[in-house]
Write a structure and sequence with these properties.
Layout (H helix, E strand, L loop, with lengths): L9 E5 L3 H13 L12 E5 L7 H6 L7 H13 L4 E3 L8 H13 L5 E2 L2 H12 L3 E6 L2 H6 L1 H6 L5 E4 L3 H12 L14 H16 L4 E4 L4 H5 L7 E3 L1 H13 L7
Parallel strand pairs: 1-2, 1-3, 3-4, 5-6, 5-7, 7-8
Helix pairs in contact: 1-11, 3-4, 5-11, 8-9
Length: about 260
Amino acid sequence: MHSIKNKPTIGIVGGMGPYAGMDLERKIFDSVDARNDQDYPDVMMISVSRLIPDRTHYILNPDTENPCTGIEYVIEKLAAIGATHIAIPCNTAHSPIIMNQVKRYLEINGIEVTLMNIVEETYKWVKKHIGNKKLVLYATRGTYYSGVYRTFFSPEGKYQIVEPDDDDKHLIWDAIYSREYGIKAWSNPIKEHALENFKIVTEKMFSEGYDTYIMGCTEIPLAMSQLHMPIVKIDPTEILARALVKAVCPEKLKK
């Protein structure tokens, strides 16, 4: 019997939302140069949305329950079953008000895992592949408010994070959160109304000269992958997936 102990293993904190976790897992497998089942890395995902309150709601209302508690619970469970490299497929969860608490919990409790950061990995990828640029950021209200992308991208001055205007932000948020057509409620298939919202905003930004877009919410690629325009779509989920494969089995990373 093969031992899985001490083998580098990917852990996914799912549920933010559930389809975003599944999308990361799929992109992990898509990033592997495999010839058979056994070539793929070990991947474990725990998805318990009910334990992890909405991240934007907490950032805007910090007197409510911090999602870090549910995230910490899942990380602890993943570590206990052997995960060594853990990813949180939610950009908003990486806002300092949440992520700093998660890191502190892991340190205090001696949970020794490598916690991958989706925003940091996106920055490293952009720095390697994209020249000096103005980058349009599509994100949740919490991600905009926390400034987590600006924190990573701004210090060197090579990149300028551009946000849509307030009306267009509302179109993006509705495309994510609307109970009638938003991606969180309707992930498969995506509602045409959600896709149309992204199309409206992107056509406007493109007409103003912007051609590079960070899909800074893990639900957004589920819709924007269907948007066919001559633009560069930066997918943090895909970047995180490749970073995870490189970390646990670099020899298997697809070129």
